[in-house]
Specification:
alpha/beta, binds flavin mononucleotide
Length: about 230
């Protein structure tokens, strides 16, 4: 069974339900109540749905979260790092080799400081890398240094429905869940390849709702060193 983001109603249900409009987690007031002061990594990998990550980053930043964006090289083909820098108000990690943090190695100190990480969109390639422990881009490298027992890592896959249904992808998803990653989506609907199928990334609203549910839980007793 897939390990899905905890739901208020039914934790065993795969995926999550959208919040009602009245409880919208994307509403600035609501967001502020649960993300202020939280350190969140948004990893962006190379899929069309990268544009939806802009909304996630913007809403988190408006809610007072300390948002760091990391992008794979492929992701920068879809949305520029400058867009995420402007939305988050912070430098964007696009390479393991460019030092953004003064601390060395920077991916370790960043990983330790996080309250939650989300990868949206998570490509087929990203799922394969994470399922096999590869770390050859800055997103997978940062994730490799996160202690998932205390810091949730949520993956929001997004891909064409045939890519999603490949045995390799399904095998990787199963492995990732067994390894303690949380999955949100994908949903069904219109895809960039102009077909309707399963593989569409969950909407920002749903993803923000999932983040909220993690932050509604009691904090892990293991204190994390704060970045600032
Ligand atoms: C126009 C275009 C759109 C793509 N969209 C997706 C996508 O939605 N999901 C996906 O898994 N791969 C998609 N790909 C393929 C990835 O970009 C490719 O596998 C890349 O190597 C992923 O690298 P990354 O995982 O390091 O970001 C797309 C490629 C192109 C050229």
């Amino acid at each position: 069974m897939r390990k899905s983001v905890p739901s208020n109603r039914d934790r065993s249900t795969a995926g999550i339900r959208a919040e009602t409009a009245a409880q919208s987690p994307a509403d600035p007031e609501t967001l502020r109540s649960f993300v202020t002061g939280r350190r969140v990594l948004v990893g962006v990998t190379g899929g069309i749905a990268a544009y939806k990550a802009c909304t996630i980053v913007s809403r988190l930043a408006q809610g007072g979260a300390d948002v760091t964006v990391a992008m794979t090289e492929a992701a920068t083909r879809f949305v520029t790092p400058l867009t995420f820098q402007s939305l988050s108000g912070a430098p964007v990690y696009t390479s393991a080799w460019d030092q953004i943090e003064s601390k060395d190695p920077q991916h370790i100190s960043l990983a330790r400081s996080l309250d939650l990480a989300i990868v949206a969109p998570a490509t087929m390639d990203c799922l394969a890398k994470l399922a096999t422990g590869r770390t050859d881009d800055v997103v997978s490298l940062i994730l490799s240094a996160i202690e998932r027992a205390s810091t949730p890592v949520v993956l929001a896959p997004a891909m064409n429905d045939i890519m999603w249904s490949q045995k390799s992808t399904q095998r990787n998803v199963k492995q990732l869940v067994e390894d303690g990653f949380y999955m949100i989506g994908p949903g069904e609907g219109w895809q960039a390849c102009r077909t309707i199928g399963t593989g569409r990334m969950s909407e920002p609203e749903e993803i923000l709702g999932a983040i909220r549910r993690f932050f509604d839980r009691p904090k892990s007793p293991a204190a994390k060193p704060r970045k600032k």
